[in-house]
Amino acid sequence: MNRILIVEDEQHLADGLRFNLEAEGYQVDVVDTGEAALERLAESQFDVVVLDVMLPGMDGFSVIKQMRDNRQFTPTLMLTARGHPDDVLRGFAAGADDYLAKPFELPILIARIRGLLRRREWLQAAIHSQASLPGKTSRPSEPTGEFRFCGKLVSFDRLEIEVRGAKYPLTLMEANLLRYLIQHEGKPVSRQRMLEEVWGLHEDTDTRAIDNFMVRLRRYIEDNPSRPRHILTVRGVGYRFVAFPGDEERA
């Protein structure tokens, strides 16, 4: 049975979510502060966290950041008072995996939770269903398990990247962005396309948020982030991923 932690200070909403999610067959715990959520996560393992942004004391943005800093990578759905893109992007930047604006319809919330659970299951199962492909054969069109390039290893199932013996955790959104770039290897991908196809943001949104994520990804995978060879900027468009830059340089 999947366990869900609800972090919500509006009692009537928390009670309603608990009732309906338990009716769907989930085991549900409820806390009403960010501090209590961090304590519960330190004590127990959950499959999904439903986290309200507006909480007394520590807000949801601070909670998700602290979770990721503590290497707690439980898939997290943030509930925002508004579906404003800036709030959504701030949540993603802190480490959230999905968002839903209040007021929301219950079937949509349940569908989002199921989606996070499916993604978690796919990631965990990937290592069993796909063998790691070494060298230049490791160019999957749909990378879900491991992806190797130039001595680097991205483990999508474990949400981490290994570079020169050091391992760095990835949020699910960082992993999804990197996966999207890998899927379109060698092709320029616009910031707007990434916002729409990776994050589902279709309205007028500041695309510079993508740049912030690329800065972080470059810190992980580039030998010299100021002179990137894998995640290249395409001026006026977006970015292009190159797994083996030596091939392009010799071409």
Overview of the molecule:
It is a single chain. This protein is of the alpha/beta class and 251 residues long. The protein folds into 2 domains: 3-125, Response regulator (Rossmann fold, 3-Layer(aba) Sandwich), CATH 3.40.50; 130-250, Winged helix-like DNA-binding domain superfamily/Winged helix DNA-binding domain (Arc Repressor Mutant, subunit A, Orthogonal Bundle), CATH 1.10.10. It has 9 helices and 12 strands. Strand 7 (152-155) and strand 8 (160-163) form a beta hairpin. Helix 2 runs parallel beside helix 3 (60-69). The chain starts with a strand and ends with a helix. Mean pLDDT is 83; it is low at 126-143.
Features:
alpha/beta, five-stranded parallel β-sheet, 20% strand, four-stranded antiparallel β-sheet, 2 domains, Arc Repressor Mutant, subunit A, 251 residues, 43% helix
Number of helices: 9
- Return Rg in Å: 19 Å
Strand content: 15-25%
What kind of sheet is the major sheet? 5 strands, parallel
Distance between the ends: 53 Å
Task: Give the total of beta strands.
Answer: 12
> Segments where pLDDT lies below 50 for 5+ residues?
126-143
CATH H-level superfamily title of the largest domain? Response regulator
- Here the CATH topology of the largest domain equals Rossmann fold
* Average predicted local confidence, pLDDT: 83
CATH level 1 name of the largest domain = Alpha Beta
Write the layout of secondary structure elements.
Layout: E1 3-7, H1 11-23, E2 27-31, H2 34-43, E3 48-52, H3 60-69, E4 76-80, H4 85-94, E5 98-101, H5 106-129, E6 146-149, E7 152-155, E8 160-163, E9 166-169, H6 172-183, E10 189-190, H7 191-199, H8 208-221, E11 231-234, E12 238-241, H9 245-250
Parallel strand pairs: 1-2, 1-3, 3-4, 4-5
Antiparallel strand pairs: 6-7, 7-8, 8-9, 10-12, 11-12
Helix pairs in contact: 2-3
